[in-house]
Amino acid sequence: MTDQPVALPDPADVPRADRSRPEVTDQDRDVLREQLGRPARGVVGVAARCVCGRPLVVRTSPRLDDGSPFPTTYYLTGPEAVAGASTLEATGQMVGLTEWVRTEPVAAAYRRAHLAYLADRAELGEVEEIAGISAGGMPTRVKCLHALLGHALAAGPGVNPVGDEVLVRLRDTWRPDRCTC
Ligand SMILES: [Zn+2]
Question: Which of 14, 61, 74, 135 has the fewest CB atoms within 10 Å, measured from its CB?
Fold first, then answer.
């Protein structure tokens, strides 16, 4: 097992994405189609961008056009970010992270991240089927690093401790403030 951090990541160590331009342009839609290999569904905003401007995370309606509930309000689209999260999952880091979120002060921070996620989604409307369900395993488990990284990029450092920790672990190979698109 890898060494586990004991404290919360220092926000100063967490690379930041560009969160200043949420409007979805036609060019964004073209990039999203290329990133996902299909048209993006339910997109209501670009929650985080690479420093080059390409979308990294989209903000998604909690109910898609076909009526299905969609819990992943912050959906990670940047291919290198997706690959980075996949690599961490494939190298067995979820087990240690799950143990980490059971220790304080991380456990409390992770519960706050869960509530912050639900509050952000509530701005987009209430969907009964996914009421109280956030994403990625929050508030007590670590099940999808893509969802947790997406939340951290969208919310900025200091909100999602697991997503922030993922950003710290990836920063030597990929980071949102240094374009490698
Ligand atoms: Zn870029």
Answer: 61
